[in-house]
Specification:
With about 140 residues, the chain is an alpha+beta fold. It has a single domain, classed as Roll (Archaeosine Trna-guanine Transglycosylase, Chain: A, domain 4), CATH 2.30.130.30. Strands 1, 2, 3, 4, 5, 6 and 7 form a seven-stranded mixed beta sheet that branches. A hairpin with a 5-residue loop joins β3 and β4. The longest helix has 8 residues.
Amino acid sequence: MDSKSVLISIHPEYVAKILEREKCVEFRRIWASKEINEMVIYATAPVSRIVAIARVTNVVFASPNYIWKKYKDQGPGITRLKLMKYFYGKSKCVAIELSGIEEFVNRPQLKFIFGAQSRPPQSFQYIDKVTLKKLKRYKRVSR
């Protein structure tokens, strides 16, 4: 599987901010070792649906303080205090810049794309090309 796409779980509060362009950067404690071109966004409970696909335009690995300084005025969608709590204990963290967000009109459940036994990923999971093609059959609108 030579995937350049991932499925990522995000709390609904932050998904809403991504869809409204209040949040243009996703922050993570760990990230993929491969180059990633797009991110499929899964909103955790109570939504529990795949809600959007976004292009990954840049990935920055750096200290939490550097990440905050770089992105604080670029739509972080989170307070400094919450971000530092999230990154607590990490000397390096990740900022993923997003663009080209397409929201699904009918938000599919994971089981319809990944099978009945699927579970949302703790951090992320790679998506193979066949699964991505199945997902992209669902109608999307640019936001």
